[in-house]
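tool_log.txt
---
The assistant was asked to compare two proteins side by side. It first ran the structure predictor on the initial sequence, then on the second. Raw inputs and outputs are pasted verbatim so the downstream comparison step can read them without reformatting.
(1)
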Amino acid sequence: MNVSHVIEELVEERGLDKETLTGVVCEGIKAAYEKKYPTLVFSVEQDSKTGEVTIQAKMKVVSQVENDLEEISLRKARAIKKSAEIGDEIEVPFEGQIGRIEILKAKQIIAQRIRDIEASLIYEQFKDKVDTIVHGPVHKTERAGVVIKLGDALGFLPRSLMIPQETCPVGHTVKALLKEVLEEPRHENQLILDRASAEFVAKLFELEIPEVFEKIVEIKKIVRSPGYKTKVVVDSREENIDPVGTCIGVGGARIKPILRELGSEKIDVIRDTHSREELIRNSLKPAVVNRVEIIDDENAHVWVDEDQRSLAIGKNGQNIALASKLTGLTLTIIKPEESEEAEVEEFQELET
């Protein structure tokens, strides 16, 4: 049996090591014979020069053969191994045949072992890249998400981890956070990507802004409502460096590549401060806040002019919800007094 052409095709198609694939093919053939002849012990080897596969079975040396599958006469045994004696077990070239069912079994085992090897290689290649930005062209789109080509591997971006309403046409290059690397594929996916988390935006800042990457400017906290807005609190380790200006750049030059990557999503960059009142004011940008009163460790009241109210609240309450997450307080917008008793309306944090 010559399987050299099969191995060569697999090497070219899969890009795997030839010696490894040879072992896999021999393993599959051995399993096929074991299925057909379960009482026998086989060994399978390939001649590296001729490509021929030899199949041998262990047989017991006997004086009189009663089972020609498991026993061999002393005369025949000594033709193979001169030192053979009655009662010995020797490996003998096996001439029995296998059928279609056994061949199918061999193919299944070979295919599964190749998948296992490829999964192991991908895991080793990407395990140290978790929580980093990866990029590549869209390979195909599915109902459940988008498949992105990452070199010779494929990453999966689930719909639940995509930016709402975004489209990823085939061929379009996409950046994403490598969220998870699985040792074994789950539903054929091993590299799980993410574009909806706050961590993805934080890594984009590191990618585009050298001072953030070098920790000169530090991201103290980041909250996000994907597709709507991200709020980032930054601080500088050097007094002469403005962390907000560094992140935005002259004319927005540094923030623009990040904004382009996020589509229509906005980013509020806020300077860190020890004043909770000031942090609340800044967190409600772009609204102008007139007054802040911290009620307790969980609540604060905020006064804004009527024309600033919608800005403070944001679309579907998302701006004030993000500000609440950022400050760790439930923020309540106090309406202007139109009667003796002010009307109060509270906006709770959106569920994460």
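(2)
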Amino acid sequence: MHAGAPGEPAIENLDPQVLRIIDANYNRTGEALRVVEDYARFALGSSAASERLKLMRHRLLQAVSSVAPRAVLVSWRDTAGDVGTHISTEFEKTRTGIGDVVAANIRRAQEGLRVLEEYAKTIDPRAAESLEKLRYELYTAEKGLVNEMDPCRRLLDARLYVLVTTSLLRGRKPEEVTRDAIRGGADIIQMREKEMHDGEFLDLARRLREVCRDAGVPFIVNDRAHVAQIVDADGLHVGEDDLPAAEARRLLGAGKIIGVSTHSPEQAQAAIEAGASYIGVGPVNATPTKPTTAPVGLAYVRYAAENVRIPFYAIGGIAPSTAEDILEAGARRLAVCSAIISADDVAAAAACLKSAIARHGT
């Protein structure tokens, strides 16, 4: 609704000072959102975050255009006469890194939206309300971006990691099992299919990615980095014979979770140095999913509990009957496959192991 509609002031009667303020803050906010959007697109490689920020820019334009047409705003622009163009602080002249760039521009966008909201109230209260909603949405987006900028932050509260393998589902649909596992308390889902050909793998990855996205749970692809890229997975898990962790990080970007299977303290240290977000510690017990890998036992779990400073997930033959010993050894995160996805009641099996973890605290 443009100014000049019934009950509103005509365009020519609007305060030029207000129009200049709105024009300046529209430009400021739009530029800042674009800086953050490009970070989400090119650095994080997150299509969801970049799409969200792009839509916010378009909604910003719609809201401001309902206050006054862009041509009117531009007509009152006076860059040469703007006393603020020569005012700056030392903070504005330096950035300590890419994270600092993003943080500064999020603040800039939030401040610009607040100014737009306040001055829009004098012309079009409904536009002001739209700008207020946009500002609150940016607060939420900021939290998501902060988590994506540091993948390890997303793992701090993630205790139960469930691996989905179709051969163990007893004929049930992968989407159904995944939803049930999440309902029971799974904090992360990994799609692990060693034998499936790429076309089928890609189709299933897309479907499980949507299930996890709807539930707000990170989705990890095992081994196949190209599929992780295509479906915009939250991360990739690699083993000792897969793509090196450092290459996985370079390929997927700074905002993705990179997990690495390890079987010894030396492998753990190498994975950490290569930039892993988390490591798998195991197999603790013999497991049919890794029949050729000898169990590492509880000694390696104890080592990880005392020495590993990034999140680690004990894995391998974990079930309610074995979980207590592993948790007593110091594990606070468990990665589980068949004990959950092959259970008669998937949600109950997940809830049982999640409760066991909770009893041992953080």
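---
observation on (2): Residues 11-149 form one domain. The beta strands are 160-164, 188-191, 219-222, 235-238, 257-262, 278-281, 312-315, 334-336.
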